[in-house]
Here is the input.
Amino acid sequence: MTDRIGILGGTFDPIHYGHLAIAEEVRVALALDRVLFVPAAYQPLKAHRPGADAHHRLAMARLACATNTFFSVSDVEIARPGPSYTVTTLQAFHDAEPGELFFILGADALNDLLRWREAARIPELTSIVAVQRPGITLNMKPLFAALPALRERLTMIDGPRLDISSSELRQRAADKRPLRYLMPDSVVEYIAEHGLYQSHS
Ligand code: ATP
Ligand code: MG
Here is the structure.
């Protein structure tokens, strides 16, 4: 049997319990052998540059994943020059990994899928697992109309629905409000040690 490999891409700026909880939920629900977290160098669709440098976001993701033996962090997107296109990353994993791929994303990201580069290629390369997110209503009609292949490739997971976002955490850090219990202590400490997110952009 080949490995069943989950892939969770994101800016992880910073990583938080919302990310970790959906990865664990999907891992258990779909009996994945492992989940790879893939921090983006920068995401072409985000209006702002990340609040923390790539090496900090990578370090925080590694700290957060260290306590789950099924989780690991890949630096492929950060190591690659230029913007991070998911299709490039999935093609690379598809070619390099002997396993079956499951691309995990939140409902907000799924709603955005048609704007991604070569969106039609994505369901050809991987199964897609979409997880509900508080405050987001999924709009499947345009997605299925544009990408009919998605129908057989999509699994919906109700998820733990934690109302946590990196945007809110960056604002909290800038306002000196607590981050604890929203992300692992190791990440809270890393942010304090390196003085990250002190001014909100
Ligand atoms: P930002 O506020 O900066 O956009 P974020 O919290 O959305 O940060 P990202 O790094 O943009 O985090 O998200 C990476 C992936 O994780 C996306 O697919 C996103 O939908 C998903 N995700 C993030 N937080 C949650 C959450 N609380 N519940 C469900 N999915 C989530
Ligand atoms: Mg986001």
Observations:
- The radius of gyration is 16 Å.
- Strands lie at 4-10, 34-39, 71-73, 100-106, 127-131, 154-157.
- The chain has ten helices and six strands.
